[in-house]
Amino acid sequence: MMKLINKFRKSEDGAVTVDWVVLTAAVVALAGAAYTAISDGATSLTESTGTFIENQAPE
Description:
mainly alpha, 2 helices, rod-shaped
C-alpha cells in the first residue's frame, strides 16, 4: 500500500494538467482584456470619424 501511495505522490501527470489549465485561463483572460481595450478604441475612432464626416460642408 505504501508503494502505491509513494508512486501516486511522485507522479507528475496531474501537475502537468493543472499547469495547462492555468496557462489556458491566463491566455483567455489576456485575450479578453485585449479585446476590451481594442473595442473601446475602435468605437471611439468610429464615432469620431462619423462626427467628422457629418460636419463636412457639401462642396
